[in-house]
Specification:
alpha/beta, Rossmann fold, two-stranded antiparallel sheet, 10 helices, 31% helix
């Protein structure tokens, strides 16, 4: 079966639940933007990260591999895609979508669908591709960050697509972030040497053959020699990193 988005999570999504665990600080920021919503739809829900436990949540996720990793007691998950939500207009108090919009084949239609089924806010976590080169990984895998920049839609396009009015805020990434996306390890570079960590970051799959191995070998050598710490050691003591992560809320 053809993948619903630009990455095949049915074959490449194993292990996501173990590495991509919700971070409490990021979760708090998302949940605050849901306001007083009692019913929430999570679009592109994956393994269920960031779904609030104190509200009535319904998840929508096309990948069987990702649905299978949802924990016991998680919200029920419907099979479907953002571009064709199987719900009536104004069905939910709020809709959320976390780090998923960049994978949708028809972004405009998916955003319009979220806005259609939401009575209140549409809350999106996305990345600002223009900020990616600020991350030290650009010294080792510039091709990776270039790929991500091409995948990520512009924030103003997202903001216009999810509401008549909207606001955008930065989400600081904590030094001990439990959600294993690339920038989460800004102070723990050794973690990116772990193949299981990289497998839970879809961006590596878009590189040409040989680039990942070269980048990992370069990083490993610099960590072993101390060269990484000479150039980037100040990152290890930085309590938060204002990277690419952004929280965009659209209102009716």
């Amino acid at each position: 079966m053809k993948p619903a988005g630009d990455f095949d999570y049915d074959t490449g999504g194993q292990g996501y639940a173990a590495i991509r665990r919700p971070d409490p600080g990021i979760a708090a920021a998302i949940h605050a933007r849901l306001g007083g919503a009692k019913t929430v739809l999570n679009v592109g829900a994956g393994t269920g990260s960031y779904e609030p436990e104190d509200r009535c949540v319904l998840a929508l996720e096309p990948s069987r591999t990702m649905r299978a990793q949802r924990p016991a007691g998680a919200a029920p998950a419907v099979i479907g895609v953002a571009e064709d939500l199987p719900f009536d207009d104004d069905s939910f108090d709020a809709v959320m979508a976390v780090m998923t919009l960049h994978q949708w084949p028809d972004l405009a239609r998916g955003m319009a669908e979220m806005r259609r089924v939401a009575r209140g806010p549409v809350v999106v976590v996305a990345a600002d591709g223009a900020r990616l080169t600020r991350f030290w990984l650009n010294d080792y895998a510039p091709e990776l960050l270039a790929v991500e920049n091409r995948r990520y839609p512009a924030l103003d396009i997202i903001a216009a697509g999810i509401g008549a009015r909207s606001d955008t805020q930065a989400i600081p990434i904590p030094i001990d972030c439990t959600d294993g996306f690339c920038e989460a390890f800004y102070a723990r570079p050794e973690r990116l040497l772990d193949p299981a960590v990289r497998r839970a970051q879809s961006s590596w799959a878009f590189l040409e053959p040989g680039i990942e191995a070269r980048a990992v070998a370069h990083l490993a050598a610099d960590l072993a020699s101390g060269a990484w710490d000479e150039r980037h050691g100040h990152w290890r003591g930085q309590p938060t990193f204002d990277g690419s992560l952004r929280l965009i809320t659209g209102y009716p």
